[in-house]
């Protein structure tokens, strides 16, 4: 490979490094980081509360009944879960879902658009 070509390639790689999309491997790494189930504590006794039934009202909004696992407490309540932002864009995007990117990704996307 000619030196000029190498230099050009090196330049474009450095140029793209900031805005390049995540690879499959990187996506998987991110996913495995969240494999530990999130724990929601009971607001009264602090014991883990379990989600009993959950109902999706929209693709990005869900409501659920939550129940304390401490039999001496017995609290039950309602929670809502709203998906607010995209961290890693889907490779199978649902056209009805319009989620803003997390601010860091928005900056990268705008920088990419500005530089072509
Ligand atoms: Zn409790």
From TrEMBL:
Region (Disordered) residue spans: 1-28
Domain of life assignment: Bacteria
Zinc finger Ogr/Delta-type domain segment(s): 42-87
Ranges annotated as biased composition (Basic residues): 12-22
Pfam families reported for this sequence: Ogr_Delta
InterPro entries the record matches: Znf_Ogr/Delta (IPR007684)
Protein name per its UniProtKB record: Ogr/Delta-like zinc finger family protein
Organism, scientific name: Billgrantia pellis
Upper classification of the organism: Bacteria, Pseudomonadati, Pseudomonadota, Gammaproteobacteria, Oceanospirillales
């Amino acid at each position: 490979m000619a030196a000029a070509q190498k230099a050009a390639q090196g330049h474009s790689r450095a140029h793209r490094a900031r805005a390049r999309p995540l690879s499959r491997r990187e996506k998987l790494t991110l996913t495995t980081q969240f494999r530990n189930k999130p724990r929601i504590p009971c607001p009264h006794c602090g014991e883990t509360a379990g989600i009993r039934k959950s109902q999706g009202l929209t693709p990005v909004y869900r409501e659920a009944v939550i129940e304390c696992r401490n039999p001496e407490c017995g609290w039950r309540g309602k929670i809502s879960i709203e998906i607010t932002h995209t961290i890693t864009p889907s490779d199978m995007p649902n056209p009805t879902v319009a989620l803003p990117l997390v601010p860091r990704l928005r900056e990268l996307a705008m920088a990419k658009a500005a530089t072509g």
